[in-house]
Amino acid sequence: xxxxxxxxxxxxxxxxxxxxxxxxxxxxxxxxxxxxxxxxxxxxxxxxxxxxxxxxxxxxxxxxxxxxxxxxxxxxxxxxxxxxxxxxxxxxxxxxxxxxxxxxxxxxxxxxxxxxxxxxxxxxxxxxxxxxxxxxxxxxxxxxxxxxxxxxxxxxxxxxxxxxxxxxxxxxxxxxxxxxxxxxxxxxxxxxxxxxxxxxxxxxxxxxxxxxxxxxxxxxxxxxxxxxxxxxxxxxxxxxxxxxxxxxxxxxxxxxxxxxxxxxxxx
Length: 267
Prior knowledge:
The chain is an alpha/beta fold. The protein is built from 6 helices and 14 strands.
């Protein structure tokens, strides 16, 4: 549990693209960042900076780890052993076996900003088809499967009990097919796509949840529009002890699903 105070001291491990975004949100929320990155050129004027976690001198209240996924477990485990609440970027590990080293820590939380989308409350009770697109502007760390499909597989867990992957096709556009409580779904993902998109097309397009624009469309008409700062909302929830307690369990299931998808690629 994170005990909220007006100004918390937060250790930010990783001052790359995602780390810089967290840094901005910390400043907006009025908290004090303590920065850590193996690259000394990523120093930011006005903030304490260290190249290694073990060098940090200040007392901190919580930690955020936003580095390469291959280093997530190695870096976050000592912080968890210190009793620090840790918000860990996704994917938390590159295998479930690796994740098991930190899974038992109840003060570990796995990042998923899309759970703060205003569109999710419009997900219908009755679904018979579901087509998902997550086409990104930039390139990720691992693959479109691990960097992009992660988000939507995680969100599917909010609405369905049993999810499994039946087929994976690779190329410039990756396509993951599966079933969620026996309802067929397709998930298309790509890096560096000329037409970025993050949307769920439900029941042959009768309902569209646009997670990028935070819009909901019903039969071609705009029903809902509520742009929001999802990263800021997620960070605030973490620091105030209101973060989803099931994030570790959903991360575990996601890792198993992605390993299942990779096994299909090898067959």
